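for the recovery benchmark. tokens below, seq after
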């Protein structure tokens, strides 16, 4: 074969029109360059190869594609040739489902998790206040009308509290503290404390403990030790501590002493709640009661000391304001420790409240938690300050 055979390349430099026409022996024109259109084609500009990153894998490996504002991936057009060749998608083509652009006028809204949370009391305050006022009316009316009726109110609260405590122990820990001897012995302790004072309370406590030991013997021996231990704890924690309220009532001004005891305990709890809810930042005992703060404790101390000074000065015979300051301080500490003590019990049992008898408060034991350990403290300090009466 010679140079003029089919398939030989044309002479270099001939890609456009010439005065002499096509050379002899030139390769036949391809579909894009037919002989009759050769006169109309225009010389292509010589552009250096620019490597393309991520180019079309289906095309020639050595082909270079130009992109940018001057060379877009669109068909080559001119004034004389209107034919089009397939090409890639035009540069900067708009996707079919573009995502909406954020509105610059509207600031981004925080998610619900980022919304500032308002402080909550955690309970139905309306029900709590209503129940509290109702209990206060019953207590004060019985306290100043007939003392024996008030003793009956205390004994009833003790029995209900024992029922709540023993029920939770059995439900959560499978501890069967004998309720019958506890209830009878607990009521007897309160009455004995009112009639015979501390001596009568100790005797009733001893008899109640013996009754618990004997009563449990009617059951199988499995779990005997834990059941009687829980029974003795319940007898001391609820009825025995409550007998000090009855012993306060024995004095000539016993009604006023009990009233001072109730006022200081309530004021201490209220001061701790109000100050802690508004200014509380530092946890007091996070592992026991995460809601209590040191600021709340300071509020309890301040409120109860002021209330103690006023009560001792105006409600207790021969009492002075400085005695009230010490009494208020002691009440704030004992009430806080009592609240933490029951919180420890409830955390061990895995419950929030001891019961549901009092709407907004929980159970009876949830109201006695700060009163029970405070009763012996107030009784002792009043005896020291002004005598037994």
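predicted aa per position
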């Amino acid at each position: 074969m010679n140079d003029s055979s089919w398939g030989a390349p044309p002479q270099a430099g001939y890609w456009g029109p010439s005065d002499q026409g096509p050379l002899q022996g030139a390769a036949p024109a391809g579909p894009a360059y037919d002989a009759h259109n050769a006169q109309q084609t225009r010389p292509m500009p010589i552009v250096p190869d620019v490597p393309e990153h991520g180019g079309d894998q289906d095309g020639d490996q050595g082909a270079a594609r130009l992109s940018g504002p001057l060379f877009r991936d669109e068909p080559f057009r001119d004034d004389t040739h209107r034919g089009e060749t397939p090409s890639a998608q035009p540069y900067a083509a708009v996707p079919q489902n573009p995502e909406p652009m954020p509105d610059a006028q509207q600031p981004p809204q925080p998610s619900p998790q980022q919304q500032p949370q308002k402080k909550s009391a955690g309970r139905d305050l309306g029900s709590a206040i209503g129940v509290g006022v109702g209990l206060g009316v019953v207590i004060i009316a019985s306290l100043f009308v007939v003392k024996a009726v008030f003793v009956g109110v205390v004994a009833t609260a003790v029995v209900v509290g024992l029922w709540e405590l023993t029920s939770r122990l059995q439900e959560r820990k499978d501890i069967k503290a004998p309720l019958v001897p506890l209830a009878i012995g607990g009521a007897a302790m309160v009455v004995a404390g009112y009639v015979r004072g501390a001596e009568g309370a100790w005797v009733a406590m001893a008899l109640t403990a013996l009754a618990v030991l004997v009563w449990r013997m009617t059951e199988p021996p499995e779990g005997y030790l834990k059941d009687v231990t829980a029974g003795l704890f319940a007898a001391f924690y609820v009825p025995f501590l409550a007998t000090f309220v009855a012993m306060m009532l024995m004095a000539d001004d016993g009604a006023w002493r009990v009233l001072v005891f109730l006022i200081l305990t309530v004021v201490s709890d209220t001061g701790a709640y109000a100050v802690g809810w508004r200014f509380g930042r530092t946890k007091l005992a996070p592992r026991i009661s995460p809601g209590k703060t040191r600021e709340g404790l300071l509020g309890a101390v301040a409120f109860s000391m002021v209330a103690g000074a006023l009560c001792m000065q105006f409600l207790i015979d021969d009492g002075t304001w400085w005695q009230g300051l010490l009494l208020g301080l002691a009440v704030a500490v004992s009430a806080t420790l009592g609240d933490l003590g029951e919180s420890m019990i409830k955390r061990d049992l895995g419950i929030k409240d001891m019961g549901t008898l009092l709407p907004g408060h929980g159970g009876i034991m949830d109201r006695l938690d700060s009163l029970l350990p405070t009763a012996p403290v107030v009784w002792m300090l009043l005896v020291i300050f002004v005598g037994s009466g």
